[in-house]
Automatic annotation (TrEMBL):
Protein name, per record: Winged helix-turn-helix domain-containing protein
InterPro entries linked: ArsR-like_HTH, HTH_ArsR_DNA-bd_dom, HTH_MetalResp_TranReg, WH-like_DNA-bd_sf, WH_DNA-bd_sf
Organism: Candidatus Heimdallarchaeum endolithica
Molecular-function annotations in GO: DNA binding; DNA-binding transcription factor activity
Residues annotated as domain HTH arsR-type: 15-110
CDD domains, per database record: HTH_ARSR (cd00090)
Keyword Calcium on entry: no
Length: 235
C-alpha cells in the first residue's frame, strides 16, 4: 500500500505543466520519429502543413494530428498565418520552439518539479546522447565514415564532457561555492550539454571546421616527423 502511494507521489520529469489542471507527457510527444522529423525541419525553416507532409512523406491528415500533439506540448508554435485569396481560410506556418537534439537531452521541466535522484543520474552525461551527437558530427567530419572513426569521436566527446564535469567541480571547491545540490547538478548538466553542442556547431561552421582541420593536419604532420626521426635513430 505504501509502495503504491510512493509511486503515485513520485514526480515524473517527462510531465510538464501547462495551464491549470492540464499536463502533457513529453516523452509521448517525442516518442514518434515523424514528430521528431517535424521538429527537425521546422527548426530549420517555417513550414505549413502541406510542406511538412511532403518533407516527412506523410499525409496532411496525419501531420495535422502530429502538429496538435506538438502544439499542446509547447514544442512547436504558429509563427504566422497567410490568408488564402477569395477564401475564408488561412494557411498556418510552424516553427519548433527547441532544436530536437536539445529536446533529447535537456530536461524541459521547472526546477521544483525535477526529481533530485533522476537529475543526479544525468550528471555526468550518459554515453547514449554523446554517441548520438558523435554520429551526426561524423557525417560532417568524415567523407568516408566508419564505425571505428565514430567510436574514436565518441571517446573524444566523452573525454571533453568528463573534463567539463571535473573542471566545474574543481572550480566550485576552489572558490568555495555553496549552492543548492539540485541547482548545482542542473548547472553541471547544462555546462556539459553546452560543451557537446559547441563542438557540434564547430563542425557545422565551415570557417571553424577549417581551423579544426588545419590543427589536425599539423598534429598529423608532427607525428609523421617523429616517426621518421625514430626510424633514423633505429637505422
Amino acid at each position: 500500500m505504501n509502495e503504491k502511494k510512493d509511486n503515485k507521489e513520485k514526480k515524473d520529469i517527462n510531465i510538464i505543466k501547462l495551464e491549470k489542471g492540464e499536463t502533457v507527457d513529453l516523452s509521448k510527444a517525442l516518442g514518434s520519429s515523424k514528430r521528431l522529423n517535424i521538429l527537425k525541419y521546422t527548426a530549420e525553416e517555417e513550414l505549413n502543413l502541406s510542406e511538412i507532409a511532403e518533407k516527412i512523406n506523410s499525409t496532411p491528415q496525419a501531420v495535422y494530428h502530429h502538429l496538435q500533439i506538438l502544439e499542446k506540448s509547447k514544442l512547436i508554435r504558429v509563427v504566422r498565418e497567410e490568408k488564402i485569396k477569395n477564401m475564408d481560410k488561412t494557411i498556418k506556418y510552424y516553427r519548433s520552439n527547441f532544436h530536437p537534439e536539445a529536446i533529447n537531452l535537456i530536461l524541459w521541466a521547472p526546477l521544483d518539479n525535477l526529481d533530485f535522484e533522476q537529475l543526479q543520474e544525468r550528471v555526468p552525461l550518459s554515453k547514449l546522447p554523446i554517441e548520438r551527437i558523435a554520429r551526426k558530427i561524423s557525417n560532417v567530419m568524415f567523407q568516408d565514415k566508419t564505425e571505428y572513426k565514430t567510436d574514436i569521436l565518441t571517446k573524444l566527446l566523452e573525454g571533453l564532457i568528463n573534463e567539463t564535469h571535473h573542471s566545474m567541480q574543481a572550480l566550485k571547491e576552489e572558490y568555495g561555492l555553496e549552492l543548492d545540490e539540485k541547482l548545482w547538478n542542473l548547472m553541471l548538466l547544462f555546462s556539459q550539454l553546452s560543451t557537446l553542442n559547441a563542438f557540434k556547431k564547430t563542425m557545422e561552421n565551415e570557417k571553424l571546421k577549417k581551423n579544426f582541420d588545419d590543427l589536425v593536419a599539423l598534429l598529423a604532420e608532427e607525428m609523421f616527423e617523429e616517426v621518421l626521426i625514430e626510424k633514423k635513430e633505429i637505422e
